[in-house]
Specification:
about 675 residues, mainly beta, Immunoglobulin-like, eleven-stranded parallel sheet, ten-stranded parallel sheet, 58 strands, globular
């Protein structure tokens, strides 16, 4: 049973200031008289994300048409009534709210303003006793879930996801559509155990906890009628698909006599000749995705057909010998997992001698970089932080460190002073398995500077949903010794202008196994949008919109003994740059295995695709039809030739706006899905 909600009473002090404007001139017959300012502005209710206001109606010589509402000086809505709820606010935050009356002629009254605060954020749920299941683990039986016990601010709501696991309770996969507090066991569960994941949520956040596994679901045991005969196989099951790591195989049932009423599947791993087969734990559906353990082996599927008379099994022919997945760089590398450990906080009002809690935060981001451990998160509150930051510590592959914006706020990282090159953020040797998210990083100064500089053996770093802007030289720079750096869903723009002509770039990338995806890369006033040069290997640039560079949108090349190879450029929109869309410059050896597939390239000053060393396919040489290029809206129109033209293996789940990909039969090109 859920606890009753707490009723939180907030004492809110409203300071109302009326500013009365002088009436306008009556030189014209047109109505120029504004309504009177609303009065008696009061707060009626406040939640963690909204405040509700009411006021006394204004008067007008002709008639009041309605009221405009403002939050921190920005208009957020209008109404014809004398009450309004301002929503989408951050918890425990004070806002300046205002209301102005307007008439049919567009005359607007002075504003009546008030200060109001949302309710406190509360404490996110934490499990104190794991969820449990009740009921028999048998086909046709109803299992019921108890959410367990949770601490945290009430009210707490619960969501459920039933999961099918192997006999040991591992290798779990979500059961499609099984999201209620109860679940009826089906024949697909035979041979498996079941767990339920419970997600507890309140206004402060959410967390999940799994139940213990049930007993193994047994085969149905119903005696056959005396006259029934068990099924008999007349055509073996068959396997379709490619026998390659990470590829999915499918199985048919084959053909049977006896009108089977149910089929069960068991995938089996065999030697190269199809012998010495062993059953694969948990692989008991009609499809199977090959794992690394299958490389060098063949596979068979055993289908068991059942009816009222009994059951019988038949094995398929073996597949070809399974091969390994393609080398890194031909499909997208995995993203870092979420950090689920302790949370710390940084605020411009804090102190580095504090414990780093929400109520007693640290003062500097460097304190967070020096302190947080694997799996932990540092939330940075709104404000500007001026410091030459250096990250040289590591999380782990399963528990990365996260440094991110506090939800609903946008902190700004600026460089400090005192160095020849003042850089807001350096990722140095030792930095690994770290995520930087939701930060604005700007204003690097110096003759060889950059907003973000990755050097040494820095690897497995993610910059997501960040804005990199207004550096005197580069927006992002990585050295050839770095690896596995991912720029995901970032806005990188207006970097450069102080360096030698044409040598400042929004992104200057060297190193291996890097990924640039779903980014808007715009306005490089003194160079290139993206430069992959001169020492890069297995870099992927996908689903980006790259516009407005002085020179080329993307340039690829080499210098001396170093070169760029195994580069993948795909699903990008590269348009309206000063010289070429995509070009190459081979000052050294020409790179190998560089591919450009399904890119839309158009409107670039000197041409679209230039140079050698890149093998192109599926290029779209047509106007991308942006919604409003002059106004900065670079989303695609519905009739854009970039719609549904992307390669799915190189498409991330969401675009720059967080819209799910794909919306049509294939992903759209560029940073935005229509």
């Amino acid at each position: 049973m859920r606890n009753r909600p707490w009723i939180v009473a907030a004492l809110l002090v409203l300071t109302v200031t009326l500013i009365v404007a002088s009436p306008g001139s009556a030189r014209s017959r047109r109505d120029r008289q504004a309504p009177t300012a609303p009065s008696a502005l009061t707060l009626t209710t406040a939640t963690t994300s909204s405040v509700s206001l009411a006021w006394t109606a204004s008067t007008d010589n002709v008639g009041v048409a309605g009221y405009y509402l403002y939050s921190n000086g920005v208009r957020v809505g209008s109404t014809s009534s004398t009450a309004y709820t301002v929503s989408g606010l951050a918890c425990a935050t004070s806002y300046s709210l205002g209301v102005r009356a307007f008439d049919a002629r567009g005359n607007v009254s002075p504003a009546t303003s008030a200060y109001a605060s949302t309710s406190s954020c509360g404490v996110a749920p934490t499990s104190t006793a794991a969820p449990t299941t009740s009921g028999a683990a048998a086909v046709g039986s109803l299992l019921s879930a108890s959410p367990g016990t949770w601490s945290g601010t009430q009210p707490i709501s619960y969501g459920y996801q039933w999961r099918r696991c192997d006999a040991a309770g591992g290798g779990c996969a979500s059961v499609s559509g099984a999201t209620a507090a109860s679940y009826t066991v089906t024949t697909s569960d035979v041979g498996d155990t079941l767990r339920v994941d419970v997600t507890a949520s309140n206004t402060a956040g959410s967390s999940s906890m799994a139940s213990a596994p049930t007993a193994v679901v047994p085969q149905l045991q119903s005696p056959p009628p005396p006259s029934a005969s068990p099924p008999a196989n007349t055509a073996l099951p068959a396997i379709s698909g490619t026998a390659q790591e990470r590829q999915t195989l499918g199985a048919t049932t084959g053909t049977w006599t006896g009108s089977p009423t149910a089929y069960a599947y068991q995938w089996r791993r065999c030697d190269a000749a199809g012998n010495a087969c062993t059953s694969i734990s948990g692989a008991n559906t009609s499809t199977y995705t090959l794992a690394s353990a299958d490389v060098g082996a063949t596979l068979r599927v055993r289908v068991t057909a059942s009816n009222s008379g009994g059951s019988a099994s038949a094995d398929s022919a073996q597949t070809s010998v399974s091969s390994a997945a393609p080398v890194a760089g031909t499909t997208l590398p995995p993203a870092l997992p979420q950090s689920t450990g302790l949370a710390f906080y940084v605020s411009t009002s804090g102190s580095d001698s504090n414990p780093g809690t929400l109520t007693a935060p640290w003062r500097t981001v460097q304190k967070a970089l020096n302190t947080v451990q694997a799996g932990q998160t540092a939330y940075v509150r709104a404000g500007t932080y001026s410091q030459n930051l250096l990250m040289s510590r590591a999380g782990t592959a399963v528990a990365p460190i996260t440094v991110r914006n506090y939800p609903g706020e946008r902190p700004v990282l600026r460089p400090g002073t005192g160095a020849t090159d003042n850089m807001p953020l350096q990722l140095g040797s030792g930095a690994a398995y770290v995520r930087f998210q939701g930060l604005t990083i700007e204003g690097a100064t110096g003759p060889s500077t950059t907003n973000v500089y990755a050097w040494g053996n820095a690897h497995n770093i993610e910059l997501s949903q960040c804005e990199l802007r207004n550096s005197q030289r580069q927006g992002f720079f990585s050295e050839a010794t770095t690896s596995s750096i991912q720029l995901l869903g970032c806005y990188i723009h207006d970097n450069g202008g102080s360096g030698p002509i044409q040598l400042d770039h929004n992104v200057y990338m060297e190193g291996q196994f890097h990924l640039i995806a779903d980014c808007l890369i715009k306005n490089a006033p003194n160079g290139f949008g993206v430069q992959i040069y001169p020492s890069s290997d297995h870099v992927i640039v996908t689903e980006n919109t790259i516009v407005g560079a002085l020179r080329d949108g993307i340039i690829v090349g080499s210098d001396g003994a170093t070169t760029t190879s195994n580069l993948t450029l795909t699903n990008n929109v590269v348009a309206f740059n000063g010289r070429y869309g995509i070009s190459t410059y081979w000052g050294g050896a020409v790179g190998s295995a560089n591919a450009g597939a399904n890119n839309l390239v158009w409107g670039n000053g000197a041409g679209q695709l230039s140079g050698s060393g890149i093998s192109y396919s599926g290029s779209v040489l047509a106007d991308p039809l942006f919604v409003d290029r002059t106004g900065g809206n670079l989303h695609l129109q519905g009739t854009s030739p970039g719609r549904d033209r992307g390669l799915a293996p190189y498409a991330r789940p969401t675009d720059l706006d967080g819209v799910q990909r794909p919306q049509g039969p294939a992903p759209d090109l560029g940073a935005y899905e229509y």
